[in-house]
Design a protein that fits this description.
By secondary structure, the protein is mainly α. It has one domain. The chain contains seven helices and no strands. Helix 2 crosses helix 6 (126-142), helix 4 runs antiparallel to helix 5 and helix 5 (100-121) packs antiparallel against helix 6. It is elongated. The protein starts with 5 loop residues before the first helix and ends in a 6-residue tail after the last helix.
Length: 155
């Protein structure tokens, strides 16, 4: 290793004055906070998955409320079982880390169908939009690959 030239020493000093090293230390702080964000994302994803699992279990159990709900939405009662299986399948795919992005895409499509169904009968559909956003929020916080695709700017 050769000794640093005076020119290189000046460049390092100027970089220190410009705060380049402060930016590097901020990156370390962000990396430390990332561990907490991953856990927040996992909790969000888990709670959302419980909501979908509860919905699927209600469809599997059947009952008067499910029958009335399906009739109100204009869906035949014979779709109850396939919708429940679809929901459970999408949630399982969403919870497996290797297939979580595919699961988020499938759940988003499922929510898109729910939005169209509610829109068709004149029901409010804001909750379905919020659920779709939370699907991706939970995944964004727990999946580092998405941070490279969808970078958030920092001041």
């Amino acid at each position: 290793m050769r000794p640093a030239s005076p020119h290189e020493i000046i460049e390092v000093c100027q970089a220190q004055e410009l705060g380049v090293f402060d930016q590097l230390s901020r990156r370390n702080t962000v990396a430390a906070a990332t561990g907490n964000m991953v856990w927040v994302g996992r909790v969000i994803s888990f709670l959302l998955s419980l909501v979908f699992a509860m919905s699927a279990l209600m469809k599997l159990r059947g009952g008067a409320e499910v029958t009335q709900g399906m009739a109100h939405l204009g869906l035949p009662e014979s779709l109850t079982m396939p919708l429940a299986v679809l929901e459970i399948s999408c949630v399982v795919i969403y919870l497996i880390p290797a297939t979580s992005v595919l699961g988020a895409i499938l759940l988003t499509g499922y929510m898109g169908g729910a939005i169209c169904t509610h829109l068709r009968v004149g029901d409010p559909f804001f909750i379905q939009i919020a659920v779709g956003m939370v699907i991706w929020l939970g995944l964004y916080l727990r999946e580092n690959r998405l941070k490279g695709l969808i970078p958030l700017r920092t001041p």
